[in-house]
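Researcher: Here's the sequence for the chain we discussed earlier.
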Amino acid sequence: MRKQNKLTHYIDFQTNSCLVAKVVENKSRSSIKDLREVNLREAGLLLGMVENTNENKRDGYMMARVGFYPQSGFFLYQDLPEPKKGADGVYLSNLLSKQAQIDPENYNLAVLSAQSGTPVNFGEAPEKEVLFCGLQIEEIKEFQNFILKEKVFPQSVEISTLPMLGALKDYLAYSEITDPVLFLELGMKSSHAFILSNGKVVEYRKLSQGMHRIMSMVQSELGLKDIKAAARLFNSDTFDFQEMGPRLTSHLLKEINAFTSFYEVEKGETVRHIHCASVSGKLPWLIKSLAKLMMVDPVEISYENWFQDRGIDFETPEMAANLPFNFLGIVGLMLNSSPQTEENGTQEETA
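Model: Thanks. This is the structure I predict for it:
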């Protein structure tokens, strides 16, 4: 059980910034006491924040449950014809080499239930519908070295996509949305597209389009000096991209339509909702633009009612009224947090 009024820090690292939440937890409730976004482009800002924090520290390091979006991160949804074969390491290695086009020897891997999101043990309880995921071992080492230099000691490290998927699944269940939902996570050079239906992941595809392509189009459309100027515009609240949305998303939309059409023909179900996240940029306009072009409904999360049901609250009404675009990543880390805290060492997780 959680200790009475235990303090936990959660940090969701994105491309150019990170969200940091200070949460006081007990057995029945979690209260978000502080939530801030730290710009990682400016050296020393995160380190300065950590050094000015006196709570939940050990030997000068802030203890935190951490998530990030690795460039080498991969996912592979499989409906296994013979689940018991999953206990055969050679079979899994060959499957990943062929289907995901990776060398499993170089990856930190996990196999999760597409229904519950928990690790699958093929030897004891094989499952038919699974989600393979992982990242290169070298990248997790580099990331851990980076956060340790920033004086953050990770109590756990997760691919943020996974707890965010779990949080979205939880919200869909709370909202009684059972129709298929497209969850789109835009990376810089590529994107991840998942379809959730009836409380589980039912399909996945990696898309070749990402934020870099959209930013290049913004640079061209607006006559900006370079792509960095487009990136700064994306991370500000000074420009409304809504009118440009159809042009900016045209290439991305072609891939999305191909993916959803394949699913709809194969499963006989229609994708009726969309939710988006991004590793960089403030993109609420993107959800509206894609939803309109796809003729689907955006999943607009009502945190207040959902949090009341889940025993989560905010320190102030102002905090609840000014939530950052990618707040769901922090929520996923919170919901995925084990009640038992690792008191010593670093727990490496990909799920």
